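Hi all, long-time lurker, first post. I run a small reading group and we've been trying to get comfortable going from sequence to structure in the token notation. Rather than ask abstract questions, I figured I'd post a concrete chain and ask someone more experienced to write out its structure so we can walk through it together at our next meeting. Sequence below, copied exactly:
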Amino acid sequence: MARIPQLTTTLAYDRYMAGQRLVSSVDREWRHLVLRSYLEPARQDLLEAPGLRDFTLMTLASGAEHLERNLGGRWQSADMRVNDLWFVPPAPISWRWHSLSDEPLSTLHVHIERDLIDSVAQQLGLDASRELSLGDAMRFNDPLIAALLAALHRAARDPADSRLYVDTLVHALAAHLLQHYSGGNGARRGSATWTERLVPRRIRRVTDYIRANLAEDLAIAELAEQAGLSSFHFARVFRRETGETPHQFVTRLRLEEAARLLRATDRTVLQIALEVGFENASHFSVQFKRGYGATPLAYRLRG
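-- Answer (accepted) --
Happy to help. Here is the structure in token form:
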């Protein structure tokens, strides 16, 4: 049997898994994270896997299991239920488990790039000594993390969900992890603040930029740069000022412009989809029907 390496990449980690892959974000144009889910065997006597360079969280998507792991020569165990979370340390681990229910056993794995975590820490004004770690926790519970992982899982299964939406989720997840699961000397006071009275003007600058660039691939980092704010603070104040998340705002404007073009021009659905920033006609049609209750062609025929 080949020796397990100390560390491997997120893309290579798939080869060490025992289950049948159900969902993968590898082929999606996502930034900063990889998500996979697996249908696991009801019983696994031993699974050996290397450590991961990327920060990795796992949770049960369905079923229940008695899970055991050997980390550093010591076996630990816990009974895991849906939404229970566990952290994969950057070291080789041996696993074994058996199902505790009649439901299919499936797991969700989310791998976040270390560079993103470092970037969000800097945006939050955290000291360089602030290290994100969940230590040796075999199992922990955090309803917000569980909800964010579930939202990412839904996004991976839905081709209509945009990269901007996923960017928002992963930045929120990284910020939450840093605020609640990191140690060090704390935040640098004053370095991450901004003049509150300038926020409305900065958000107007962003909304004007969005209107002028609807066809572009708009990312949270790019919009935050227009506002002169960190990505984390930008998403929060944008919603406060507009009543919508950046993703909701961009999608609404794209659909409004598409509706206008459907009424006023004879351009094809594909031409309109690309002109207002959707990846393809199928993605556009799904989103348009969600927003207007009719397909683009049906909307055009209604006049």
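A couple of things your group might point at:
Residues 246-264 form the longest helix (19 residues).
The chain has three domains: 7-180, 194-243, 251-302.
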